[in-house]
Design a protein that fits this description.
Four copies of one chain form a homotetramer. In chain A, 49% of the residues lie in helices and 14% in strands. Chain A has 16 helices and eleven strands. In chain A, helix 3 (36-53) packs across helix 14 (317-331) and helix 5 (92-103) packs across helix 7. The interface between C and D is large, with 78 and 78 residues.
Chain lengths: 354, 354, 354, 354
């Protein structure tokens, strides 16, 4: 068979859901007295609402999977704008390959049903189209994104940076280039001083930019990404703001990393409480013993998560996240919630002058 | 109810399966002409055997999940000893919290059935026992492990290190302390010059050690972990050894990271082929769009994995990995396979003198 | 620990969601241009809406799992009332143990979180409380339900009956006893002449009633349940109304049974088309090769389901079903859809007089 | 693309694994002290071995999914021959469409990898090839199988039969036609007087035969399949042999049906114990609340399964079943186990003369 042209394949764009326009409260409230996932979801939504009402509770949003390309970008950008989140811990893909990528003017596309099956991936390869299950990306545009991160690296002081520092520089870049309009998570977080951490930062488009940067620098001074610094910084936030809640979408490194800061604070000699709240949306199975699907009760044996207000929701994220965030948005607790501007707790004089 | 004493709970040790003692070839061959997972597993075993027979093909083992604590340590140590693997990309937990931890003289324990359910996690917390599904760990011993990594950090030159460099230093430490006997992956890899990468290295026990180190150093010079350097190093290996195969256990960052080096090599201007072989053992669902469960066909659209010899196996790892590795071990292709000593391609004079 | 009294455990009732009161159209429409489950769900909702608008298309609703006890009873009852379904194929549990059970005046209850873990099931056993994951049932009330089915059996002519005939008699019973008020699926279907089939009818509360009936009859004449007659009757409906669509919630016997009538019609010499529409909500994995998770494309190789309008939705039912049915309800195609009264096509003179 | 000819597609046959030839004991014993599925599988194997050693314990094997077509036929036939099972409860597909089908001289075939993806199902449809995930069937041969069941129906007395009676008649048919050689479950069970029940018997190839039979009989006397009689018969076996164990492969109707006989016995006024042993191999998720994935602890709240010796194994069946059965086979407890010949407890004079 002959596939259509690249422009035909990349013609229907992913559109991001706008939870401010849809009232999901009656739906979520009706789910409260049902069974199974419906009830779990309603309880998770209530716990998130409760976090927002708990004075001084810092909220850490953890993102794994391909969420931004799936149409959830506006949800997370809105959370930043509405002071519903104080820090973000994410895989690199959501932040760089998808969010920053769209800020550069690019888009994600709806794949035709037959492409999902995998038989045409050879053709996609020839056309420079990358596939995420049912979603398509122009690979040539991804290369532009890689290069932008390389340029940002070149503009930084040649020393170890946390991923948070680098992502803040991405925000500066977007402002300077007038590219932050719309619903860019990186830009909204930059403006609101919400720190974003990617503990495996080289595992994304920025990794390509950084490898190119380090390659170009040879043995000379260069920018490096210090993942230990990430961990240290996030731990400092826990020390400075001891009451915390986690909103985890997917599992993986972000889930483990954010949970671990309780232990890290202890290691540094600070007596901090476990995360007071924890909700997770995931379809990972508990039975393979991996962290992604491990229960939040299990995390309590590690001293990471308290078990009074914890809830796992067995659902793919595109279904559950708009309902949970939409519920809390409509309930409006964020209106009275002050901006925490956590980045300001971390930025040294040197950075600010950079 | 009253739980037994800590010593009672931590009395039955996890024992690592020894695939050199069990002949699984008749079983795997019988599975070849069945359906579903049996056939897929047999095909994966054959592809792994084929990788081993392919002259010059470098094999990268990717580890995610809690595999070492589950009794698979000896399998991976054997793979290193028998030249069945040329590089390892892992989450930090397998390498530091579990493998290095056991080298320090500690063990993992079988949890009673009722502990799996989560109701007793509060008591475990009080007893300083951590739980991984059906497996228990003495948390006080984990703190000793954290401290050992801190001491290792203190012994390193205060500059950015790749996780590979740090893990090599862990091997040096084990040798110096006469702790490497038995089946330690870190030590066997150190001796065989097999590099181990943990792209999210601070997301494990070493992270605690590093945070403590950096905290103690204050504004002074300190060790940092440069995840970009990890990516650069692994990419260099792909450039120097262009034919490669992946053996992935679980998904997550290791899967993505190892796949991405094909693209990274291209970004640096090298024209390298996709990974020629790829097998993955996972129970992750493809339908949430996340990388862990994404098909290897999908990876071919990204130009990362060739599709002639790829096979996914839908199974929890403790069941499938001994069969796949055991089959290839018994088939014996490793006997004629030369040691690649990939670490020597990466170690600069400075390191060697360190 | 001491569990609370039975009355305390059975105090918070499951409440059934009312999709007529909640406008989900904006939500579902926003999901149309997202990825993963959101997009699949939106497409399934549109396919269901399209079925309703297709003149002469008969719609068969297939139910597996514990859906009625989970709070979906009113959704299905509403579908019957609003002429959105022409026949139902279900496991016995939904129809007898849960729907008919509630019509007898009984309820389902919300289980406390800790009960889900299974550690207290021994105590529940002592208290005569049955558990479905997070939902509780008074076992003594279930025995009353069993007995009611025995009484219904005793009132029937001693001959082979299809499950449809028996369930119709349950409707007659409810009418006579003035028990059908509210949202009883069995009763609404009885009034609307919508046939309900349970192909494994003895695998539920009615099975207990029938065993008791047959035991009491000894060697004398007795009521029997002829599952072949079920299959014959449903096949006749396909022959008489050749354009059909399937709305499957879960998999199992109902999915297979309803798909098979296309082949059965062929076996009888009728040339009927495949099911024109098919949507399924399930979390079953495709990789175990079982029917429940098998794709609707696979069904097309069997000549059962056409592939133009088919969509699987990877979600637990309590989340997806209210959105799909709610969307179609609000779109209102049912208003112009005539009642099909399919039972009247099957009822012989003998039955009507019974 | 053009697909190859039908004969080419149907050229590589599925071969059934022979557990008597493979010693899996060292493997299973090594798994005993690992974690996750390996440990669960080893424990399930030990529980099965224990059942076999428990004097007077009746063992009921429950089969759901496509197991026979997947290459497990010989395993189950061997279990019958070696007195490792006293009754079988199955979906119809395994017994009629797959086991009886192969006894008629037909085979199952290995599908090429690309056929799994579903894109070629339209072509398969044209070629009269049916697909089960990665396995192919000649649909024309399935029609021969349907017709054979019709002929068997025609040879029976026109009255309600349990599926067990019908399947016994299938054994008689195979004997008369000299078709039972090899590893036919139906024929081995017939010879060993092991009853086989299919509680949803019309949901398979036999359903097509029965529909054709009933259609041909019109209003005259005809064979019917009484699923209540199935339930009554299996319950009688529980009453006559009160100590019982369940070996469940997959979930669905067979799991529920076999568990329910404890309650049915109580309904009839007999005080019988719960199933003393229960093991289940499944990948079904517990979180959708459906019976297939529900824990065996949950079943204890219903008074169906005791919890001292119960174990679920999270694995696709083709991997786990040969290990569990192979372990028990090699351990040899079956050698001293008497044949129970349960069918003889059920066969009335009338049947024997039929």
């Amino acid at each position: 068979m002959t596939l259509p042209e690249k422009t035909q394949l990349l013609s229907r764009t992913i559109e991001h859901i706008d939870i401010t326009e849809i009232d999901v409260v009656p739906l979520v409230e009706a789910m409260r007295r049902m069974s199974f996932t419906a009830r779990d979801l309603a309880r998770a939504a209530e716990i998130f609402d409760r976090m927002l009402r708990d004075d001084g509770c810092g909220i850490i949003l953890c993102l794994a999977g391909s969420l931004v390309s799936a149409g959830l970008k506006k949800v997370f950008a809105e959370m930043v704008r509405c002071r519903m989140v104080d820090a973000i811990v994410s895989n690199g893909a959501n932040i760089v390959d998808q969010d920053f990528f769209e800020a550069l003017g690019f888009r994600h596309y709806i794949a035709e049903e037959r492409l999902k099956l995998g038989l045409d991936d050879g053709t996609l390869r020839e056309l420079h189209i990358d596939r995420i299950y049912d979603t398509l990306i122009d690979e040539d545009q991804l290369r532009v994104c890689d290069e932008a991160t390389q340029r940002i690296a070149e503009g930084l002081e040649p020393r170890p940076h946390s991923s948070r520092e680098f992502i803040r520089a991405m925000g500066v870049f977007l402002e300077r280039e007038h590219l932050g309009a719309g619903d860019c998570i990186v830009y909204e977080a930059y403006k609101a001083h919400v720190p974003i951490f990617c503990p495996a930062f080289s595992d994304c488009s920025a990794g390509f930019g950084l490898v190119a940067h380090q390659h170009a620098c040879g043995d000379g001074p260069k920018v490096s990404i210090d993942s230990a610094k990430d961990f240290y910084e996030l731990t400092q936030l826990k020390v400075k703001n001891t009451t915390t809640g986690l909103f985890m979408v997917g599992g993986g490194v972000p889930k483990n990393f954010a949970q671990d800061i309780v232990v890290a604070a202890e290691v540094l000699g600070f007596d901090v409480p476990m995360h007071k709240y924890a909700i997770q949306v995931t379809v990972a199975d508990v039975r393979d013993g991996a962290l992604s699907g491990s229960t939040l009760k299990e995390a309590s044996s590690w001293g990471k998560v308290d078990t009074v207000f914890e809830q796992m929701v067995f659902s793919e994220a595109t279904l559950a996240v708009p309902l949970i965030v939409g519920y809390a948005y409509q309930k409006g607790a964020w209106r009275d919630r002050p901006a925490s501007r956590w980045s300001t707790l971390l930025e040294s004089v040197r950075e600010v002058s950079a």
